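3.2 Worked example (two chains)
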Amino acid sequence: MKSEPKGVYKAQKKNGSTYYRVSISHAGKHVSLGSYTRKSEASRAYKEAEKLYEDDSIGLLNWNLHIKVLPEDKVIVILNHRDNGMYIGTPIYLRGGYFSYFLKGVGEMKFDNDDLFYYSSHRIHVHDGHLYVNDYGMQYGILARYGIKNFAVAGKDYTFANGDELDYRYANIIVVNKYHGVTAVSKNEIIKHETKIHINGEFLIGRFETDSMAAVAYNKAVDAAIDAGVKKNFIQNYVLEYTPKEYASVYTDIILPDKYMDYLNNYDK
């Protein structure tokens, strides 16, 4: 009976169809190379992995000239294992003081080593330009790790210090507006935090000394809208800067504008 090519294992799906699992061992580590429908592809995948481990002239910049079957994420895993002596199951390549995560269709993302453990066990996905991970059955945007909310807008609510939108190192991400309905505005070099709420049109609630105070003002405006019968899925701000007692005091002191309250008093339910 003819044996399968080296590193190739024949298997069957539940529907009875045949496929081929491929793996390679290197430096005491068993590395899965994926599954293939054709034996010839499976065999070539093994040979490509073997070549990556043996030929150090092949690297991050030129691997696509030599590799035709192995998917990109497997290539990165092997190159990192070969060059840095550490096997990581996700497409991570260790750098000096940080690491790169290569995502097909996105490119090379940079992260601080503080996040290495997390992204070693959580794969990044992309959908409609939104980058996220699956964690405990839920989807979490990667920006949430920086305190940036899902509704945040790049260039307005947060910016990248060096202009590289794929550089997610903490020092490179500047959070400008972390609360919903709150925008930092500058006038005569003085920063104020402007609160607006959108119902049927936009209402200016006020300008405040701190973003936390502005966030409370937005919450109060939302509460007033709900009390008036406005049917909308408002996002409430969770303000960490205040104790419950301090929050209540700030909330009480905020006076909503007459124009806004007149609109709510005459709101057509």
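3.2.1 Second chain
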Amino acid sequence: MKRLILLSIAAVLLLLGCDRAKTVLFRSYINMYDYSENIQLKITEAGNIAIYQKYTSKDDNIKTAVYSFKSKGEEKKRYDELCKIHNDMSYNQKRSYIVVPIWGRCFAIDFREIDVVSDKNFDSEHPAGTSLKDIVRFVSVSPKKFIDSGYKETFNWERKEPKIFKKEKETNKLFSYSESKNYFPINGLLKDIGTDEMQMLPVNTHGILFFDKEPTAEKEHTLTVTIYTREGKKFVRKITKVFK
């Protein structure tokens, strides 16, 4: 019985130890970068196109990686490189967490350019196979402005949330509301935005494509979405969208 009691006490102490908050000085706001080349497209309930990360198994042979402040070796070296690229080197804040930090996680792949073309004539100005950059916009969020401001500038979502975010439920998956003030909206036509706007994107849903115009003839279009990254990679994905 005495041994059983001692074992029970040990188990309780172990559980308490696991739940004990750890306070750490974080040099960078982003503490974890998720890398995945399994970038996919899906049509949302609202009819827009979400660019998202499809999670894979070890058997899928698709490159994935996690680079964090806890990483070792080459992974830690890559984490430090990404922090330097994003000018995220002087956060210097002590923050507490239990298992893993609930803030500062983002996609490791920065988008440089996105192009969209259709297999059918969209309207008189956009024949089949021509770019739709001037009528498709990319919507997402990023902590880039917060970081670039020296971790001072924030965004008031309650007062300034862009109307386009309220039209799409998938925008709720873009970031954690506990850190929402540190994330600024991205909302621009593909012809107008580039790497500066599409850095440090959310991990799960990287962004959403909205059409500013409807097609004038055929309603069903097979769209080719080409994503060019900061590192020079190209991802080409196709999706069928039926316009109302």
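3.3 Remarks
Residues 2-19 form the longest helix (18 residues).
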